[in-house]
Amino acid sequence: MTQASHQLFRIRDRGDVGAARRAVDALAGRLEAAGQASESAQIAATELGTNILRHGEDGYLLLRSLDRLGLEILAVDRGRGIADPAGALAGAGPTPGGLGVGLGSVRRLATSFDLYTGVAKGTVVLGRFAAGRRPDDAAPGGSFRCGGVSLPVVPGDLNGDGWAVTDDDSSCSVLVVDGLGHGPAAHQAAQAGLAALGTGYDGDLCRWLHSAHAAMRQTRGGVAALARIDLAERRVCFVGVGNIHGRVVARGQTFGLVSQPGMMGTEHQTPRPRLLDLPWVPGASLLMWSDGLRSDVTLDSDRKLVTHDPTVVAAVLHRDFARGTDDATVVVVQDRSGDRS
Fold first, then answer.
1. Mean pLDDT computed over 202-206
2. Residue 23 pLDDT more than 80?
3. Are residues 119 and 164 in the same domain?
4. Is residue 37 located within the same domain as residue 164?
5. Domain that holds residue 85
6. What is the pTM of this model?
7. Are residues 19 and 121 part of one domain?
8. Model confidence pLDDT, tens digit, residues 236-268
9. How far are the Cα atoms of 12, 162, 166, 223 from residue 209, in angstroms, in the given order?
């Protein structure tokens, strides 16, 4: 399933908060998140944006749709952090200048919620809002949690990156595509690569590579990587062409997933695939990202980060490692199969 890109709203004054709230209203109107879900999301966007104005540094809101079921809001900043997150969530006080609901009420309004913060480390708040059911309920299976952040380098422009995920109870495939350059032509290239995942992909990574290469030949081309986690075999397989990076984090160890040099769609001959096959440890996490982020993406600075919602993890990594010179995508998959044992 191809995932929507985020919209970014930098929060520098009250007008920016209002613009984000109106964007939430407009997006909810095009989805099934009507009525109470839309109202709750607008209240949350106002409260979170106002909180950034008062306490955050270089803060912004991220907004995207969730397959017509609802929408997702992320508040991200590099501020001083929340010294007492439990107190804040318990309703120690509303945000002055906000709607008077406080962070705890934002959690109650959301259909799913997460908070990551640390003193001098900044804060990321995630809220999802849906009509009738939780957005997470739409995902098949339940063995995996998957989230990501994907943004064009120019806010409001078409995104030259893209990502998609397919999963069931025993396997999960994740694709990251980066069209050459950025803007509309790069977006077209990325969409061609993503579409190849939905046209006959059967779990064979090398066969997908050939299909994607053929589809991207009608565009300016780009780079891509596809990973497949198989719980029954306890393996993760990876194939990539160009500068898409991957990493498996498991029990304090990190294993790199390296793409081969080359470009998709620019040559007559399909790039020769080099399939990587590694053991998959229960409870492991998979990271994949485009070169809009630095190559040294790591979770080493805070071991607790990986325990948070994968979308929160992705937002932190994007905040801390994005170059700011190209479209950027980071995707996180967590194995949650042990949660049901």
1. 93
2. yes
3. no
4. no
5. 7-136
6. 0.92
7. yes
8. 999 999 999 999 998 878 999 999 999 999 988
9. 43, 16, 16, 11
